[in-house]
Structure formats: C-alpha cells, structure tokens
C-alpha cells in the first residue's frame, strides 16, 4: 500500500469538499479519461459538484467514457483539486487561481515529482486506474458501481495494452478479476483498448503497413509523411491506434511510428518490450512509460526519422 496516511487525508478532504475539480493530462489517453470518469462518478454519487478538466480534446474513440468533461476551461470554484495520471504539473490545465487550493496527486509514473499537497503515487502500478481502484477499496468499497468498474477496468486495459506491458502484475490481474466480478465487460473493453479497428480503418492500415521497414533485427519503423496521407485522402485520426496494432502483431522488440503533422511537427509513438522508450521520448521533449512512450517533435521529418532510429539502435 502506498502512503496510508496520505490516502486517509485525501479521503477526508474529498469527503468534506462540495466542489471538486479533477485534472486530466494533455492528449488524453484511455487511462486518463477512464480514471477521471470513475473518480467523478464516485464523488458525484456522494453529492459533490464535480468538473473534469482536460487541457486538450478527448479523441473520438474515448468519448464513450462519460463524465462532466470540460476542455481547457472550468467554471466552478473548487475546494479541492485532484490531479490524476499526471506525471508533471505542466502536462495539465492549471490556471493561477488554482494556486493555494489543496491538490491531491494520484498517479503511477515513477518520475512523478510529488507536486501535490497530498501524493499517492505508485510507480509500480500498471495504470492510474489501478492506483485509484486500490484507493476506492480502502475509502469505500461499496462505491464501485458497474459503471465505475467498467471505467476502472478500461483504464487498466488501456495503459497495460491489454495486460501486455511489464507493469502488468499479478495484482493487476487480480484487481481486474474483481472488477469483472462486479460486472465490468472484459470482452467489449479489451477490444476497444487493444485498438481494434473499424473495417474501413483496418483496410487503410493494410496500406500503412506497406511503409513498415525493419531497420535492424528487432527494430520496426513505420514513417508516414503527410504526402502519403494526402495521396490516400485520409485524415490523421485514421492512424489512431495504429502503433498498438503494429506492436501487438509484430515480434520486433521495438516498434516506432512516425507521423508527420500538417504543421510540420512529427508525432513519434514507440512501443517496446525490450527498451525503456520513455527515456528516448524524454530526449525529444516527450514522455510516457518504459513500454509505451511518445513525443511531438518540431524537427524535420526527413531528419528526425533517421536520427531517432539511430539513437534507438545504439541503445539496443
Ligand atoms: Mn496512465
């Protein structure tokens, strides 16, 4: 258990708060949105007024996770703020008016600098959802409804890439089993979390796979220039989930997907079961976890692809 006193204090604060803001991180992922949704339901079911603030848009595939979501703005004056799944404060929405309001930091990133007034950070957990579920069991086990169980299981499945990352522990599986016992829908949620694609997307991905190149044994690169997307007449969102699909279906130890953005920036997504890709992502201004990390680089596509691949090769 992580910081029993901190968690007791956190529950005291949350129990007496009337207005609570929950913060998600930039470029919301499945764990972030699901954890925020789960916690918001718990607190609203207890009568609190809650807003979830995400700094940037929630992708379409995650919009089934219902909650009082707001994008880049808030309207209530919170008594307490909860940061969920946020590795560092600059990754979230934090206007000056939030300074001085009690901040509870619940996370699973090993690099989290404990920026909250109360910090419940378990760097060994698969996901923020796993940390949150542990807390809810301690705080009030009966508060986990079927909807909340579904949100929590989805968060775990999303960040563990359906139990594949090395952060997936026996505890992750036991707790997932508990959530399934409560009625969470493993089949439906794991299909979404594994990036299962709609037929049109899958057909397009078959063309994207044509760009794959085995750079060296165990290193697969897929570099997608904007010219390719234009030629195929496809929007960038058709690439959402592609990196997980490629990584799951390839034996390479490292899979990297580069997608050139219309702005000229390059989105880099890395998956690995051999290398700490978070370290590489950090060098390019990004972040993430050992097995799954990414960055948005301003370097030129034609220069970034070879230099980043060389960097990975030298670390392998
Ligand atoms: Mn997470």
What would you note in describing this structure?
There is one protein chain. With 316 residues, the chain is α/β, with parallel strands linked by helices. It has two domains: 4-193, inorganic pyrophosphatase (n-terminal core) (Alpha-Beta Complex); 199-315, Diaminopimelate Epimerase, Chain A, domain 1, CATH 3.10.310.30. The protein has eleven helices and twelve strands. The chain has helices at residues 4-16, 30-45, 128-139, 146-159, 170-181, 186-193, 199-208, 226-232, 242-248, 277-283, 301-315; strands spanning 19-23, 49-54, 69-71, 80-84, 103-107, 118-121, 212-216, 219-224, 254-260, 266-272, 287-288, 292-297. The strands form two sheets. Strands 3-2-1-4-5-6 form a six-stranded parallel beta sheet, with helices on one face. Strands 7-8-9-10-12-11 form a six-stranded mixed beta sheet, sandwiched between helices. Strand 11 (287-288) and strand 12 (292-297) form a beta hairpin. Helix 2 (30-45) packs antiparallel against helix 4 (146-159), helix 3 runs antiparallel to helix 4 (146-159) and helix 4 (146-159) runs parallel beside helix 6. It is globular, with a radius of gyration of 20 Å. The relative contact order is 0.10.
């Amino acid at each position: 258990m992580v910081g029993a006193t901190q968690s007791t204090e956190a529950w005291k604060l949350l129990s007496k708060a009337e207005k609570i803001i929950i913060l998600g991180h930039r470029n919301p992922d499945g764990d972030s949105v699901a954890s925020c949704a789960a916690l918001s339901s718990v607190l609203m079911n207890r009568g609190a007024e809650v807003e979830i603030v995400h700094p940037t848009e929630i992708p379409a595939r995650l919009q089934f996770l219902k909650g009082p979501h707001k994008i880049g703005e808030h309207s209530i004056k919170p008594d307490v703020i909860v940061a969920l799944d946020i590795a560092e404060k600059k990754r979230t929405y934090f206007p000056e008016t939030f300074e001085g309001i009690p901040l509870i930091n619940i996370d699973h990133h090993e690099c989290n600098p404990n920026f909250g007034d109360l910090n419940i950070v378990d760097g060994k957990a698969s996901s923020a959802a796993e940390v949150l579920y542990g807390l809810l069991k301690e705080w009030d086990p009966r508060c986990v409804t079927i909807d909340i169980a579904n949100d929590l299981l989805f968060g775990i499945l999303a960040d563990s890439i359906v139990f594949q990352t090395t952060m997936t522990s026996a505890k992750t599986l036991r707790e997932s089993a508990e959530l399934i016992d409560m009625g969470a829908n493993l089949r439906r949620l794991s299909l979404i979390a594994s990036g299962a694609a709609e037929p049109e997307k899958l057909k397009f991905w078959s063309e994207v796979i044509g760009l794959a190149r085995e750079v060296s044994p165990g290193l697969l690169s897929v570099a997608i220039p904007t010219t390719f997307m234009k030629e195929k007449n496809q929007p960038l969102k058709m690439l959402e989930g592609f990196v997980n699909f490629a990584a799951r279906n390839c034996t390479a130890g490292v899979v990297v997907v580069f997608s050139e953005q219309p702005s000229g920036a390059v989105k880099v997504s890395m998956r690995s079961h051999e290398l700490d890709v978070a370290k590489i992502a950090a060098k390019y201004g990004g972040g993430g976890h050992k097995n799954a990390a990414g960055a948005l680089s301003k370097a030129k596509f034609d220069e970034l692809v070879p230099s980043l691949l060389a960097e990975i090769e030298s670390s392998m």
